[in-house]
Design brief:
Structural class: mainly alpha
Shape: globular
Largest sheet: none
Number of strands: 0
Radius of gyration: 16 Å
Helix content: 55-70%
Length: 94
């Protein structure tokens, strides 16, 4: 784990679009908002459907051209994690 100041410095760059201009493509803002909503619903209720929706939205975000490599990898890992949390649990025979 990074010491706190190094972690914040490293993540700061991930949050800035590559274009660094006022006219940067911001089409992913609604997807970010929807993803956060589904993550919070899942965190509060354990809803598997919300976990699956969050996984799908994170997958969409990981394909966005304006993300840097670190954020893309983070979205991919989180997508896989939420997808596994959203899988139905089946009763096993005794």
């Amino acid at each position: 784990m990074y010491p706190d100041h190094q972690y914040r410095y490293r993540r700061r760059h991930a949050l800035v679009p590559h274009q660094h201009a006022a006219g940067a493509d911001m089409t992913t803002i609604p997807i970010w908002a929807g993803t956060l909503t589904q993550i919070l619903i899942h965190a509060e209720s354990g809803c598997r459907h919300s976990a699956l929706l969050a996984a799908r939205l994170l997958e969409q975000l990981s394909e966005a051209s304006e993300l840097d490599d670190d954020t893309r990898a983070l979205c991919e890992r989180a997508s896989q994690r939420f997808a596994s949390q959203g899988e139905p649990t089946h009763a096993r025979p005794a």
